[in-house]
């Protein structure tokens, strides 16, 4: 039987750095976390495997043994089920804070951690993606969002069992945990059949069809602060799923910001490409360019170069934390004529002649190169 490679599980190469390993682990653990994938057994197993792989590869000693001998070499080393090290546990807590306790905008926690009652069929917190137009993210806005949330089934008291009648789990004997062994190590694991409840459904509830919940619709009005960007998250407290006691969790919104036709955002900086005709670049000219708050005057100096950048401090996006604005960076795109008529050609030839040797820089640059090439073939 071919065993899964830990590097493939974490989607990294065997020579990856610790930082790359941690980054990939965080991304995958957040993606497959059970609270984000309720009732998804495949995601739950994937989450366990990701943690198992990171537990080994984040420890230099265990990683060295694994690289040489594979999983078999870790038996008796505490590598399989021996618990997370301090750095691994820090990463776990970072992820939980990112998912449930860490504010995307204030730098402080939301005031509580998401807790999952083992008897609860679904997580109280849930997440949605919210599309924002470019200007909505830049300046902030108010949005009304239609959501569907879960509420506990009254007929079965949220158990999913007919009349709320449960039976003792035959897999764990009602303990909610099972003992697992890896080599000489033995450890307890949540029962995979009853999910730690110690009880299982004897007969499914007809009202909710065994799900333990019904769904309701709601509308949330959200004030989105200026400066949010794609990937930022915002919490709407009390708009999550509802438990059997009538308490609602929180709704988390992850923003996806549309791109603009002219402005390109990089953090709090804004880039804009400014097309400039070659004569404007040579002679110099003051032109007007669009900015987030209106327009700006751009002074082209004589002999402005292609891709040259002009920086306007304080004309970018307001930082969502401090309110301090970034920069607007105007980059020149030199435009040459696509075709010229005879009169224009004559004028350009006269202009070129007026510059003399300066108008043919390739000659002075390549004269010595031509001489060297000729000397290679004399003998």
Give a verbal description of the structure.
The structure is a single chain. The chain is α+β, with helices and mostly antiparallel strands and 379 residues long. Among the domains are: 1-101, DnaJ domain (Helix Hairpins), CATH 1.10.287.110; 263-335, Sandwich (HSP40/DNAj peptide-binding domain); 342-376, no CATH class. The chain contains nine helices and 15 strands. The chain has helices at 6-9, 18-32, 41-57, 60-69, 86-101, 134-139, 278-283, 342-354, 361-376; strands at 126-132, 141-152, 166-168, 177-182, 185-190, 199-201, 213-224, 233-236, 251-257, 263-266, 269-277, 285-291, 294-300, 309-318, 325-335. The protein has a four-stranded mixed β-sheet with strand order 10-11-15-14. It has a three-stranded mixed β-sheet with strand order 1-9-8. A two-stranded antiparallel sheet has the order 2-7. A hairpin with a 6-residue loop joins strand 14 and strand 15 (325-335). The longest helix has 17 residues, at 41-57. The protein starts with 5 loop residues before the first helix and ends with a helix.
